[in-house]
Amino acid sequence: MIDIDVILVTYNSEQWIPGCLSSLEKINYPKDRVTLTFVDNNSTDKTRELLKSFQSNSLFKSFNTFFMDKNLGFGKANNYGVQKTEQEYVYFLNVDTEVDEDCFLFLSKAVESAPSEVALWESRQFPYEHPKVYNPVTLETSWSSGACMLVERERFIEVGMFDEKIFMYGEDVDLSWRLRAHGYKLQYTPKSVVTHYTYMSANEVKPNQFYNSTYMNLMLRYKFGTWKDIFKGYAMYNGLFFVNGPSTGHKKIIFKKIIASFFDGGKYRRWYLRNKNKSFKADFKLWDYEIIRDGAFYVNQFPAAQPLVSILIRTCGRPDVLREALISVRNQTYKNIEVVIVEDGPDVSRSMIESEFADLNYVYQATNQNVGRCIVGNIALETATGAYFNFLDDDDLLYSDHVEVLVHQLLTHPDHQAAYSISFEVPTEVLSREPYIYKELFHNVQHKQPFNRLVLMHHNYFPIQTVMFERGIFEELGGIDPSLEVLEDWDLWLRYALKYKFKYVEKLTSLYRIPAHPVHHGSRQELFDHYLEIVRAKHMNKKLEISIADIFKDAEYLMNKPPTIIYQFKKMGGRLFIHKLKNKIFYIAKKVLR
């Protein structure tokens, strides 16, 4: 286990101190390895009195308090705390937080298992996880939130600590990028959880955050970007004149900051000029600094129970590809998982699985002869023992909270027998299979479709890894149709959805790959188009085992969404299909009412 200095900066923080300290006192970690250091930025409420009262009854190795005679700002106050402490690792923690009891335990494990070039570890925030993208396999991230980050002290000092010119907001991106410019890596630690009371409600816009974060975006372009990045920054910043700001005198504030930016920008530009030789290149995403995953204000909660979940993986002679999928399962925050791996053909992947994934609760078997993906999928379904099933193709990946999110939704919505979330579609250029080397061209959200049976009867909007379903559905309605070469998952979802409800979860929790080259994508699409009509015809005349109210609800959705849904129908040659759907609705309605 590592020794940790926890540094907290306070400013009129009396409402947060009791909860934060109470959670720290309950940690499942040796308290003689933890030092608490508070740096108070000249509070005028009862912050000082509260800290002194807790200090006298401290359970920790040390409890230090430093009271400033002015507000130094977030970064400068944290730097002061670092200079007054000495442990090898420093955990910067906002005071408006409560740490989970295993927060430090998982941080310590992450440090001990991380590659030597990792210098920073970021905890996951509840109830709103920061939505920036991270690598589901390596857990590497491009920048880390300063609300709950652990850094190696020596490397933190080496890169110059927090930039004290930044009073508040943006100092964490700045530190992250300087660490990366020095060749270090940053790692997300999703099993280490901190509840952060940063927003009183979803989509809240805080004036201080709005003006400081937008201004710092411009300053970071001066510090890390090209002149092109800076010009884009000014174009964006000038655009703020034409939005309704969160404060009165909004335009006046923006005008003053634009004037100040020409002077401040020169100060920030000095770092860029001194570090031209570094290979680091900043990647600005408009106002963001990384690709954003949908679900920024999804309210994360731990599931109330831990039923066994079976992750079903079909693979075929490519262990280096399978390895990444298995690592993404290993990284899940949900604990009770069974991995069922079925290999189509010889047991090529057996030795890799046995030597590298003994820590997983897995079942592996190979068919020896190639029998096809549908039969392999049915073997996995029949082998699985979980209460819930979730397919995962061997070249797709799960973000760390995927299982946790879907289990929670199924437990809290017992009237739904399946749940599905949002996923990235990632065109991928495979450079090598052994070793597995690839290039991701971009991340795209192809499907954000609320549950609608009529839309599902027209086209599939459930990428296979996005869906978790109850075991009982499979036992009642069967598995995959072995006569289908592709779209076997769509056929499966249609059979299940025409009788049971699927819960739509507005959070992105996985990614699936498609071929990057148009020639490969084109031949793949031809195969899909062929089976599209086969699956449609198979289900067109089947009886819908749902209420007339549900049928009309789905139909009403179609009528109210012509710009999106009807366009999709027309694009896929669906005019006749819509007509048939209408006839089907009327037929069922007449039959039920009779």
Task: Pick out its properties.
594 residues; alpha/beta; Spore Coat Polysaccharide Biosynthesis Protein SpsA, Chain A; 4 domains; 9-stranded mixed sheet; 41% helix; globular; Glyco_trans_2-like; transferase
Tell me about this structure.
The protein has helices at 17-25, 47-55, 74-83, 103-113, 153-158, 171-181, 207-224, 227-239, 250-274, 319-330, 350-356, 373-383, 402-412, 453-458, 471-477, 488-497, 518-540, 548-560, 562-571, 575-593; strands spanning 4-10, 34-40, 62-67, 89-93, 97-99, 118-126, 140-141, 148-152, 185-196, 309-315, 337-343, 362-366, 388-391, 397-398, 418-432, 437-440, 467-470, 502-515. It has four domains: 4-196, Alpha-Beta Complex (Spore Coat Polysaccharide Biosynthesis Protein SpsA, Chain A), CATH 3.90.550.10; 207-274, no CATH class; 309-542, Alpha-Beta Complex (Spore Coat Polysaccharide Biosynthesis Protein SpsA, Chain A); 547-594, no CATH class. With 594 residues, the protein is of the alpha/beta class. The model is unreliable at 562-579 and 585-594 (pLDDT under 50). It is built from 20 helices and 18 strands. Helix content is 41%, strand content 20%. Strands 1, 2, 3, 4, 5, 6, 7, 8 and 9 form a nine-stranded mixed β-sheet that branches. Strands 10, 11, 12, 13, 14, 15, 16, 17 and 18 form a nine-stranded mixed β-sheet that branches. Strand 10 (309-315), helix 10 and strand 11 (337-343) form a beta-alpha-beta unit.
